[in-house]
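seq as requested:
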Amino acid sequence: MPQLATKINPNSDGYRANREAMLERLAKRDEQQARARLGGGEAKIERHHSRGRMLPRERIEALLDRDSPFLELCPLAAYGSEYEVGASIAGGIGRVEGVECLLTGSDPTVRGGTSNPYTLRKSLRLQEIAKINRLPSIGFIESGGADLPRQKEIFVPGGATFRNLTQKSAAGIPTIALVTGSSTAGGAYLPGMSDYVVMVREQGLVFLGGPPLVKMATGEEAEEEALGGAKMHSTVSGVSEFIAEDELDACRIGREIVRNLNWRKLGPKPRGGGEQPLHDPEELLGIASHDLRIPFDAREVIARIVDASRFDEFKPGYGIQLVTGWAELWGHPIAILANNGVLFNEDAEKAAHFIQLADQVDTPLLFLQNTTGYIVGTDYEQRGIVKAGAKMLNALANVGVPKLTLMTGGSYGAGNYGMCGRSFEPRFIFTWPNYKTAVMGPKQLAGVMEIVLRAGAARRGIEVDEEQMAAGTKAVEDQIEAESDAFVSSGELWDDGMIDPRDSRTVLGLALSAVHSNRVEGSRRFGVFRM
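struct tokens:
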């Protein structure tokens, strides 16, 4: 397999400008992630620690294998909203007893660990990742249930949480609940519907109604431990299987449960040792353009993430705006589609052909997305750009092999769909901090709206107030520019995490390894249509 060369000049002005801009964005990301780890603030953390209790990420770290990496997912959820960054829950993928698991933990320092609308959305996404990738799930439970003032946004859709638990169990995907605090009302079904339950003595509580509610409903003066404590549930009700003496003991028991799962991956093992790229991943900081009008060659990214920088390009002389080809990532075969800009008719047809080929040979797809969308114009419409794009979307929607997406630049219009944005269900989707997405670029969108408004005024015979029109156009442009920002997208959970470009190979490798916990096979729905 040929090895990719590089044309990057780290001493050029453009490279240095890109690098400085990327480092600034990464500093902002680190600041926001620190806010998420801070939870409800230092005072609440100190009070929580004083009670002998750990924070969610501390619990997860105690559960993981020694020196095991942890791929945290959706850490910036709720960014830009009225809620704390992180959405009062931590979650991600790590190894427990050598088994890749989906680990979660409510943050009791944030409004008592109650669930707000973003908590629910993040929880459901984490459950989806566990289910589709066949990952055993371990949850640290200490939550006050729904954030009651927002119950109308949580109550009805929140039932999917319990449905997902039992569906995972039915699919043979183990679910383990480590109850470190109160699990009340509907939250009682989190342990109640898990395969295994561990409760911390004199700390874990599970009941449909706590003492205040029991008092109001029945007049009974109930005592917490008798109503829902670890000893009662482990010796009387049978809700819990194990009593842990403290949180570390709960982690020990959780590890023993995983050890006894006899868990085996269903996907193929890596076929190579995962040689490091020839080119320095550090240089990824300066490759991606922060001015999205300036293109960069996707091959420069590929050369710094795939094994030994080896890339067997498919159809290199046709549809040249889309780079396609075969490579390995940490020993796993992958089929890569990477944009070098706008998608023309030939690019879309080439993509549809290549996607079907990858599906035929059970090879996961990796999309490196940097596109302004599909081309527009009379000539391209007459040549059938709609049909060409539809072929690409059809192939993408119906393949059976896993899909992973990395956003390295712009993601506009239907190009977001064609290159496997969130709506086309990639197993994992990550972004670089320079990423932007919208239905179209801010200037284009504002300009289209201005044209429509001017045409409407002309039809009605109304004279346009140029000053007001200019102000309105500027306001729309500013709005779209702000809404297309990578931090906003991450806050809305349109991705599974904003990553440092230098970590791309590692993050994608961890995600690809998790994908192989399940079967990796094509759909076998159709033969390859040559486009």
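The radius of gyration is 25 Å.
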